[in-house]
């Protein structure tokens, strides 16, 4: 476990972490029944509407317990307080089908797709701790580049409401050494060479 401050520790997800994920995500599955499946789902639209909730929960549980899902967990005194979904870009079906985000740089490209931070621990450095741990995780697994896709704000002085910050915020990525590479509709594309 990597200690990032006096209170926050981070570590990669293991197949034995389902209880921590379930505790952190709560009954609503982190965000309206997503259970960290939106970027992994084979399609959106009708498929997505039919899978929100229990079907997504079961799918993500199977991925976690099989070791097929990767990510970073944050803890405060052994209590799970944050999650960052990070893995090889090929793990995220959404990126293969979207036209809004440019194709992968190479076969070793990695992506950060989403975050979830427990409400009482927001705005106190958890996302940055998760991001720094994600960079380290991708680097150790020989990723070549790490991408992130936060929502683009129309003005610098606008604060993104917490409920819509699940893809991260630009300031966090900039603090972690990412560089703005492109804009794709409502998203910015940040990259960090590993």
Structure description:
The protein is an alpha+beta fold and 194 residues long. It has a domain at 2-14 and 72-193: Aminopeptidase (3-Layer(aba) Sandwich), CATH 3.40.630. 27% of the residues lie in helices and 25% in strands. The chain has 6 helices and 8 strands; from the N terminus they run ββαααββαβαβαββ. It has an 8-stranded mixed sheet with strand order 1-2-3-4-5-6-8-7, sandwiched between helices. The radius of gyration is 16 Å and the shape is globular. It starts with a strand and ends with a strand. The model has no long low-confidence stretch (mean pLDDT 90).
Short description:
This protein is an alpha+beta fold and about 190 residues long. It has helices spanning about 20-25, 45-50, 55-65, 95, 125-140, 170-175, and strands at about 1-5, 10, 70-75, 80-90, 110-115, 145-150, 180-185, 185-194.
